[in-house]
Write a structure and sequence with these properties.
Layout: E1 2-5, E2 8-14, H1 17-23, E3 27-31, H2 37-62, H3 67-82, H4 122-131, H5 138-155, H6 165-177, H7 191-201, H8 208-227, H9 254-262, H10 272-283, H11 289-293, E4 300-303, E5 306-311, E6 328-331, H12 334-338, H13 344-347, H14 367-379, H15 390-400, H16 408-415, H17 428-436, H18 443-449
Antiparallel strand pairs: 1-2, 2-3, 4-5, 5-6
Amino acid sequence: MLRVRGTTYHFRRIVPPALRAALNRREIWVSLKTGYQNEARKRASLLHARTTELFSQVHLALSEPDALSRLEGLRVSLRDLQSVNHPSSAQETGFKTVSAPMPKPPTVKKTAKAPKAAPLMLSGALKRFVLDSPHASADTKKATQRAVGLFLQAFGDAPVSIIGGEKAGAFRDLLFSLPASLGKRKSSLTLEEEAQRAKEEGLPTLSGKSVKNHMMRLSALWNQLHQRELVTRNPWTGWNFENGQKTIRRSWTTKELALLASASWHSTSVPEQTFGLVTLIAAYSGMRLGEICTLRKEDLQTVDGIPCFLIRPHSETGWAPKTDAGTRMVPVHPKLIEAGVLALKDTTDGPYLIPGLETSKQGVRGAALGRAFSLLKTRIGLPAEITFHSFRHTVSTPLRNADANIREVWINRLLGHEASYKSQGISTANLQQTIEAISQQCSMATHYASGKGKRPPPLTS
């Protein structure tokens, strides 16, 4: 029933075919004299009731002997209907007078206002001034599209005229919190969830240089917009990127490991034995926290007669190693076998190898352990450069300084590091030789493995 012409709503109703000849009309069209939809609906509802009544009267008139005289009166009623009365004389309508007989008399057309131009959206600015520009290089297009894509993913599309310093600053802060591996693997997480995952797992985050590059790409785009007077200022300039300098993480010292081993465990969300087991595996494998916590029972297998952890994607949960090189085999260290880790496959309830861990709302298993470890580390006064990731350094550095029989390519394969050279032809025995070169460098791990402390829970679920 409702139609819009310009900014005004109109009532339109088709006359039933059987009544068109009698009323000499195919449709009824009345201006509702309002641009507000709710008010238009009220007025249209009243007109619908009145036209329905009119159609009923025409049907009755056609069946009576004096149909012609009755129809003339109904045609007058129709004209009155299309010239809606003032509220003062027809309180039931609530309409202002409308001169709307069909057909309408010719009127002088008002000069139409030019339609308001749609605001330039960020996605449109990217396409117009970068992607479609014949002067932009392929590298510029790719890098700018990447920077704009991250902004759109975080905040959504918006007119460039309203993107100011507040949004630029929020984007800068978000970039500094994102994992350095972002984009290197498929992920269903939002950028906020990626940032939370990086925090919980202690992952490396984007460097100040990377953040600066993204901001510079957006600044270059805004320079064009400002020159064309499409924006009033460039909010992407003048930022300081020194705050993004990363704390260089390092290996544990013997004193720091002893301090960690002697600290009391206060977390109520993660059992102390689970914490001991996870740190034991990290100390004697160099595996990442996420890799350990997502191990499934079927990921502990014997390969070429050697017990191994298989680090690989889990399609059912969407988890995958952070890089392609992260998919690998890690032989089980003798100290872990001595601690009873192999028995976990038969004694732990559920699909996962490590008991006592929950999956966070973001789908990260072991997130609570990462938070609890960070709190413990802060409570006992360990420096910022020591994190759970430091266990990898504690394994990597001595291996690289070990006997010459341990080749660099074996270490990279064991730890899942990307290498610029081919690493084919590495046998399981080579990896076992590398893993066995990890000495009892971790006093905490030795503390658990020797039975002097509380043993991890390899034999109980």
